[in-house]
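Support request, please re-run this one:
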Amino acid sequence: MFVDMCESHAIYEKASFSKIDKEEKFDKLLENTSNWQVFVVEVGRQLIGYCSLVKQFSTWEAGYYMYLDCLFVKEEYRGRKVGALLMDRAKDYVIENDCSELQWQTPECNKGAIRFYDRLGAISKTKERFSWGV
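Re-run finished. Output below.
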């Protein structure tokens, strides 16, 4: 069920995604969650949203911050405070882990998310993100 949600998120952001071996990889990752966390929201037994966080080190701050790797809510549940609930939980997790801030990014085409983050009072920092497959 979680891998299906990840796939929906990738499709929404017009990104590639392969489900191959993902269930097994997540099962193995769940054995050690010391530097990452996933929060989910369910209605009944249906997964409707999630966010994932990774603890990162900032050289400039000489300390840790939390990176919001993913935040996704199924379309039919958007506008119902599910995203805000997940962000509130993420904020609490940042505080619980003595981190200085929460950082994340979203594609420029995701205007709905950008409006949501603006309403939260988040500050946008324009940067280019690079990827280097090794």
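The CA atoms of residues 16 and 133 lie 14 Å apart. The chain has a mean pLDDT of 92.
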